[in-house]
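Late entry, written up from scratch paper. The run itself happened at the end of the previous shift, but nothing got recorded in the book at the time, so transcribing now.
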Amino acid sequence: MNTDRRRLLGGLAAGAIALPALATAQPSPQEGSPAPRAIRRKRIPRTGELLPMIGLGTSRTFDEDPDAENAALVQVMRDFLDLGGSLIDSSPMYRRAEAVVGELLRRVGRDDAFYATKVWTDDGREAGIAQMETSEQRMGTTRFDLMQVHNLVGLETQLATLREWKAAGRVRYIGVTEMRDFAKVEELIAAGEIDFVQIPYSLAEREVEARVLPAALDHGVAVLVMRPFQRGGLFKAVGERPVPEWATEIGCQSWAQVFLKFLVSHPAVTCPIPATSKPHHLVDNMGAGVGPLPDEAWRARALAALDD
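Output as recorded:
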């Protein structure tokens, strides 16, 4: 790693934060806030393909009856795509979410999403193949943009199949997700056989800054960020405080945008994937992808804000 990169990442990794118990609600953005323009994009390191820097997660929020008339979720999907979003991440673990994604895309008449999901079984090769083929049917695609081994379950078996599917053109990118074993994630990044990793990262959960994010930069692996709001804990930490002036100066209209701007300004992060079933939260989240990215001094202020 070159000297400048080490200096940058060393500064980003300094310090730790203790936050109070988790909450689940995201406060509403300010009334009358305008909808954001189309969001900025980052490059996928392996190919240089541009990917919108705010994605859409589906854990819990999309676990609904796919045949139900859910106007709010239809609006979430429509707004996400209309505002320039692309990557939609799901999993068989999320129960009905994959089927809901497919149904919502059908209802809004779009098939231009960046389809991402996971294989999640330790019952062997054939079980993994069957699960991925079911995911194709549920999400309504014949080729996934990204398939990930979920939480490293059945890792060696499923990763071998993913390599075969990628060589055959059935998936475009392959990766892994993991919430705890970051040493193994770093090992997989260094091995050079995966294109993406998905990890938890937020102002409150910064362990990955020490080794995983530098490794992703060094080896050209894209990073998706799960739990960007620490499952709501960040909102509880800031409470009812208004967004600081130093944040509004670069266009942040809500704390959600502050939290997401912090993430996308890290050079290793490709795309956070906040999950929501509320249209106004979706529009708010997408606003984090508009306007300038923070510098290191801004990031330090964001960290300090949680201690105030």
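The radius of gyration is 19 Å.
(Scratch paper discarded after transcription.)
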